[in-house]
Design a protein that fits this description.
Layout: H1 12-48, H2 53-68, E1 70-78, E2 85-91, H3 95-101, H4 109-116, E3 121-123, E4 145-152, E5 155-165, H5 172-215, H6 223-234, E6 239-245, E7 251-259, H7 262-265, E8 269-271, H8 276-283, E9 287-289, E10 308-316, E11 324-331, H9 339-402, H10 406-435, H11 444-459, E12 464-468, H12 471-474, H13 477-498, E13 503-509, E14 513-520, H14 532-543, E15 547-553, E16 557-565
Parallel strand pairs: 12-13
Antiparallel strand pairs: 1-2, 1-5, 3-4, 4-5, 6-7, 6-11, 7-8, 9-10, 10-11, 13-14, 14-16, 15-16
Helix pairs in contact: 1-2, 1-5, 2-5, 5-6, 5-9, 9-10, 11-13, 13-14
């Protein structure tokens, strides 16, 4: 601008131009701040719009990259021991590049520095910082760096890493914006955790109700296996075992195992001393172990089969003391169980233990009803059926004595014999009804009936047993063991070689002799039949001053007779 003589303007007019320039600059700054605030608001909205933790973590990284125009971003979740990264969620690197790079960072170099000292780190060039550990092969080049911790309540959940800002290095305002995003991320992560915990509790409670219903059902899968399988699924475990006290004092046994190496672990026995399961059974309190290799207080049987690390040991409560222990484990390298996991699993185990107690009580009640019913049937057979058969036998025997016709007398005598055999068979059935479920010491009758039931699967049919004489009075425990061994070997031979359709067993005991006979309708002994088992039976008889004979007719059957004299 010039005056009327064409001289340029100076003074106040020049000051006005400067003010206009400053005003424009401030307006641009305000606009930039407004843009960043809008971006921060959008980032917060995107982060808070989800409740699933994996989705929330990915959204945090994506929103942070967009907010400061970073090419690459990542969120590292710090492990429970605080010594490294448990998860690493990244943005900006495609799957092919990630596969070429190899394993994800574990928390060294700059990443580790932020873990050790959770304060923001801002660098113009990563390579210029002495804490930088460099990049692996095939890793894309990265220049500027910004790292900010994410604190959930009073603990550091993880760190947010950004690099490769497209327009120069990260600024102070970028650091402030990302710090604000980290604050929002902490709230979102806490909400996602609470949501996840609520969902887990709901699933545990639902499974508890389903398992209780199944355990109280009248039939179905083994209750302990149902419990173990449910815990493995709910706890995201690799291996679950149910450990109970073994028959041998001072030992435990794996009753049920599900998951990895379950076949190898099922049936395993080991000392109770210093074991995790033993400690839980003795104290009745659960135990949580982050890493079994980093402690010396307990031993763990699972390590013989599977390299597990994190372990939960839960008591299975009984009426007076824990009836066993439920061990839940994850493989080495997986995340540890949390106290919330332990609490939910313990509640489930307590509910399952109550269901087991109720199921056992119901089974005992059914057993009592069955015993009473069998006792009634046995009593009716003894008091009515046998007495009537005995009376009928006396009547037929009286008619036989008056019969003049020899043929008719012989037929009546055969009827008396058949009635006598029938009475003996009914008495054996009566003992089977009463003795098989008796809680008293076993007798020779129970032993032989048990052997017959044991061999029935191999034979393909039930052997017929008959007892005569004072069997349980004159046969002591040692002789009962010999008789059981003889019957087992005899029926085993029938199953392996005879191709029989029936087998009859008779034990005849008098005050002078004991005779066990086993006969079948099979093909008889062949030329290649092994005789080592029969030699053992002969030796058993010889030790007692008795004998063992075998009579065999081809295609008509075999009869084994084992007899000793009572002293």
């Amino acid at each position: 601008m010039a005056d009327e003589h064409g001289t340029p303007a100076t003074g106040p007019q020049l000051g006005l131009d400067e003010l206009l320039d400053q005003l424009i600059t401030h307006a641009q700054d305000v606009r930039n701040v407004q843009t960043k605030l809008n971006g921060l608001l959008a980032a917060n909205t995107a982060i808070m719009g989800h409740l699933e933790l994996p989705v929330v973590l990915r959204q945090i990284v994506r929103a942070a990259c967009e907010l400061v125009d970073a090419q690459y971003g990542a969120l590292g979740v710090i492990g429970p021991d605080g010594g490294g990264l448990e998860q690493f969620v990244y943005q900006g690197i495609d799957d092919e590049t990630a596969a070429r790079i190899g394993s994800l960072p574990s928390g060294h170099g700059l990443l580790g520095a932020l873990i050790d000292d959770p304060r923001p780190i801002r660098l113009s060039r990563i390579a210029d910082d002495p804490r930088s550990a460099g990049f692996p092969a095939d890793h894309p080049p990265m220049g500027s760096f910004l790292g900010v911790p994410i604190k959930v309540r009073d603990s550091v959940f993880g760190n947010l890493y950004l690099t490769g800002r497209r327009h120069g290095a990260f600024t102070d305002s970028d650091e402030q914006l990302i710090s604000a995003v980290a604050g929002t991320a902490a709230v979102a992560i806490e909400n996602a955790r609470l949501y996840d915990e609520a969902g887990k509790r709901q699933r545990w409670l639902q499974a508890s109700a389903e398992v209780t219903q199944q355990l109280l059902a009248y039939s179905g899968e083994d209750p302990l296996r149902v419990i173990a399988r449910s815990v493995q699924e709910l706890a995201d475990a690799d291996l679950v075992t149910v450990v109970l006290p073994a028959a041998t004092p001072g030992e435990l046994m794996v009753e049920v195992a599900t998951g990895l190496a379950s076949d190898k672990l099922t049936g395993m026995s080991y000392p109770i001393e210093r074991s995790v399961a033993g400690a839980v059974i003795d104290s009745g309190a659960p135990i949580l172990i982050d890493n079994i290799d980093r402690q010396n207080a307990f031993t763990l049987h699972m390590l013989e089969a599977v390299p597990v690390s994190a372990v939960m040991a839960l008591p299975l409560a009984g009426s007076s003391r824990p009836r066993g222990s439920l061990l839940v484990a994850r493989l080495n390298g997986r995340r540890s169980f949390t106290p919330n996991d332990l609490q939910m699993a313990t509640t489930f185990a307590n509910h399952a233990a109550v269901a087991l107690e109720l199921a056992d009580a119901r089974a005992d009640q059914q057993r009592v009803v069955l015993l009473e019913d069998r006792d009634r049937i046995a009593r009716d057979l003894h008091d009515h059926v046998i007495q009537r058969l005995f009376a009928a036998g006396l009547t037929v025997q009286s008619l036989q004595a008056r019969q003049d016709d020899p043929a008719a007398a012989a037929k009546l005598g055969q009827v008396v014999t058949d009635l006598d055999v029938t009475i003996r068979q009914i008495r054996t059935s009566i003992f089977d009804l009463r003795g098989a479920l008796s809680t008293s010491a076993t007798s020779v009758r129970a032993d032989l009936l048990g052997v017959a039931a044991e061999q029935a699967g191999q034979l393909g049919f039930e052997p017929a047993l008959r007892f005569t004489g004072p069997v349980d009075t004159l046969v002591d425990e040692a002789l009962a063991d010999d008789l059981a061994a003889v019957l087992r070997e005899a029926l085993s031979n029938v199953a392996r070689h005879a191709r029989a359709s029936k087998a009859d067993v008779t034990l005849d005991v008098s005050f002078s002799t004991v005779c066990l006979e086993v006969s079948d309708d099979g093909v008889g002994f062949g030329a290649t039949t092994r005789r080592s088992g029969l030699a053992n039976l002969t030796e058993r008889a010889a030790r007692r001053g008795g004998s063992m004979t075998v009579t065999s007719t081809p295609h008509e059957g075999t009869q084994l007779r084992w007899q000793i004299a009572l002293k």
